[in-house]
Amino acid sequence: MGESQSPSSTNERTAVRVIRVTLIGNVALTVFKLLAGLLANSAAMVSDAVHSLSDVMGEIIVLIGVKLSNRKSDKEHPYGHERMECVAGLILAFILFAVGAIIGWGGLQKIIGGNYGELTIPGTLALVAAIVSIVVKEAMYRLTISAAKKINSVAMKASAWHHRSDAMSSIGSFAGILGARLGLPILDSIACVVICIFIFKVSIDIFREAVSKMTDTACDDEFVEEIKKVVLAQDSVMGVDLINTRLFGDKVYVDIEINSDGDASLNEAHSIAQRVHDAIESSFPSVKHCMVHINPVDNT
Fold first, then answer.
1. Do 210 and 158 meet the contact criterion of CB atoms below 8 Å apart?
2. Rounded average pLDDT over 113-127
3. For residues 41-67, b (16+ Cβ closer than 10 Å) or e, as one string?
4. Contact criterion met (CB below 8 Å) for 238 and 261
5. Residues 6+ apart with CB under 8 A from 232
6. Measured distance CA(248)–CA(76) in Å, rounded
7. Rounded Cα–Cα distance for residues 154 and 113 (Å)
8. At what angle do helices 154-181 and 186-214 cross, to 10 degrees?
9. DSSP-assigned beta bridge partners for residue 293
């Protein structure tokens, strides 16, 4: 029989495969939008191209984060490297915020300048580029978010929402470019500000989720209740006194205290604890480690 592959290695391959596809797509899309923006004289499309360039940088960071987070435990990191994904998410959030600030500031400068008559009306090619970007980036979002949910990856989720923010910014670009071509050139600059707002929101959301997973945040009540049901279904378990959970990157650590017969031998108590431990880790793939403590119940 062939050797079974670990969930972590399977997750890594899934993430790497998706990232490679979207990375190639982002490079091609960035070049296309930049050329379209320059040739069609559209500040909004050039800004959109810069946003796509940040996607390329983000994909590289996520790829590195995924690779590092799946490294085996070592002497310096006995609990593993899963939090490297959160670090990748934080870096991506900062990059997004900076890109949003640059795009927004450029748009504001043109709006505040007030020389609307001097603004160039963008060409048709910019509209075509915006439509292509919307379709392609939405497809990238759906592909990446599906993989992120499958492997429970915060960095992949951040990358997915990066794609979605780019799709939303392209919608803003389309509206601004169309408005400019209809006689309101200022709308092209306003679109840059709208894009900035979208990017800011996404960067803040990514930052909050990454920080949450790096600060030992507990799992939700529904997850805890599911664990409790599995534990109570085990033989010789008479009750559950305590369940503590904490997120560690895309993994979960569980500490649990159960009740069992106080007259049981040490070997029997060990067997009960082992059954509970194995049941939790087999029922919940996201649980990296489970610590079980038994409290004796006096039968007298």
1. yes
2. 67
3. bbbbbbbbbbbbbbbbbbbebbbebbb
4. yes
5. 239, 240
6. 16
7. 41
8. 170
9. 257
Which spans in 114-238 are helix H?
124-151, 154-181, 186-214, 221-232
How far apart are the C-alpha atoms of 181 and 256, rounded to whole Å? 64
> Residue 282 in 3-state DSSP?
helix
142 in Cβ contact with 159 (< 8 Å): no
pTM value?
0.61
Mean pLDDT computed over 170-181: 79
CB neighbours of residue 157 within 10 Å: 23
**pLDDT at residue 274 greater than cutoff 60:** yes
Parallel, antiparallel or unpaired: strands 251-261 and 239-248? antiparallel
CA distance 44 to 195: 9
At residue 294, the 3 state secondary structure works out as strand
Residue 190 contacts by C-beta under 8 Å, 6 or more apart in sequence?
107, 111, 176
Contact (Cβ atoms closer than 8 angstroms) between residue 106 and residue 199: no
